[in-house]
Model the fold of this input.
Amino acid sequence: MASLFIASFVIFAALYLAPGNPVAALSGGRPLPPGSIRVLDQRYHLNEPFLAQYWYWLDNALHGNLGISITLRENVSTLIASRIWTTAGLVLYASVIIVVLGVGAGIASGLRPGRLDTSTLVVTAISAAIPAFVAAIGLIVVFAVKLRWFPALGNGTGFLSNIRHFTLPAVALAVASLAIVARVTRAAVREESDREHVQTAVSRGIPARHVIWRHIVRNAAIPITTITGITIASLIAVAAVVETAFSLNGLGAYLVQAAQSKDIAVVQGISLVLVTAFVVVNLLMDVLYAALDPRVTLGSQPR
Amino acid sequence: MAPAPSRGLALLRATGPAGIASAIVLVVAAFAAVFGPLLAPYDPNLPNLSLAWVGPVGGHLLGYDFEGRDVLSRLLAGAQTTMLGPLAAVVISVPAGTLLAVTAAWRRGASDAVISSSLNILFTFPAILLALLAAAVFGASLVAAVLALSAAYTPYVARVLRGAALKERTQAYVAALEVQGAPATSVCLRHLIPNIAPLIVAQATILFGYAMVDLAAISFLGLGVQPPTANWGVMISENQAGLLQGYPLPALAAGACIVLVVIAVNVLGERLFEQARVARR
Done:
């Protein structure tokens, strides 16, 4: 919570220091009569000290008011609200792919040394090196242009159409993380299966299914959760790249446009939302830890 | 304190065939990064719209891009910004992270607490987000992106090295040197840091891969290297229209270059980490 507060301060301070006159930005560069400048100064607290301005901004932000976009002349909160589900849906879809395929492939190849394992290692070594935007263009060429299975651009309307439109972006977003999760999962499963208590359980004739789930996977769950949490949290920022590549109107793509046009209120608002999401995902991971590992208690400071 | 070349070669040999193959890819890439503009067979920035999207023909192995520029020449020239940018981010963040880690481990107590908690705040900013913020504040440029990425990577370096430095700090030789009255800086510079050097090198290698991906992504978004400067990330975004029009080669060629170099960096970094772990046992 404290780090979120400080992060909000950093976001505000960085953009406060950005060169450019806020009055000129509000007027779109037109010269204004002194009376209007005074009104603007007053309405946006432009003449007050820096800390007071930060306080007004934070207070407003907590009440859902993030200011007005100078390029679109609309409430930043409204603009964010209309785009947030695109980003959330994309990250969620990619997370499901990562958990199902990444953890699944990791467990399978960790339990069965041999050809499957070797090929998983090679495939993941390659796909871990494919950045999301390179994956995006590859997927567009193969699945949108050549095979025509999925659309190349846009959000789509309606649930099924959304799923179709989001499939390639979600895969592009997941490719590299999927490989990292699979590799870490494999290593964790392999390490646990070499433990003495597993050998003991096997030699005592405990059914393989029981050994795999209760003795191996349950113990490997902690490193697996750690890496899955870290990679899913990192998707929140990388989504900007994927949304731009596929012309999805999500928060990330909008942040990129706002950064290009120096739409400060939008950059501040979206950064705040993304950092909050990042912190919340990390917090959820801590909660999940406590549930998975009886030795971890919430509230204590591990490490 | 650079390791002797023979030791470097021995280290490389121990990384196995995949490690050697990766090293070869990286040497070629580094050569292109340094001499690329000189090696380019044609002017990488000379447009000729009548040749736009023309495929491979004699003398032009990879054809022409959306403005009719030679794709191979742009790839060679673009190696420079694509790889020297990440190198700069590594050269800034690894020494900064090492300094913070060693200071925290050496002094412990309050200094450690202050360093660790300020790094935790930086952790709340994903690298790409920090780079987007930097572009909004300072304008889109390679320098702003490199500085933002350096700030984002420093806590990662510091976190990995802090543990190793703490362990080293409790070694008997450190206590012995302190008893002899050796100044802290000289113990750190001459003994502690050289002893964790393999880990630092491995960390720097892995980080270079991350930096290359992030920086190419930022340039792809139009917030890093600015066109018409050749860059692999820029080449993907400027030729993206070709994907839908049936001319995917220019964008795919740039993407393939990025993937190839990053695979090589990752393989080498992973092997170096293993070496460092074995050596520390």
Observations:
- Chain A has a mean pLDDT of 83.
- The first helix of chain A runs from residue 2 to 16.
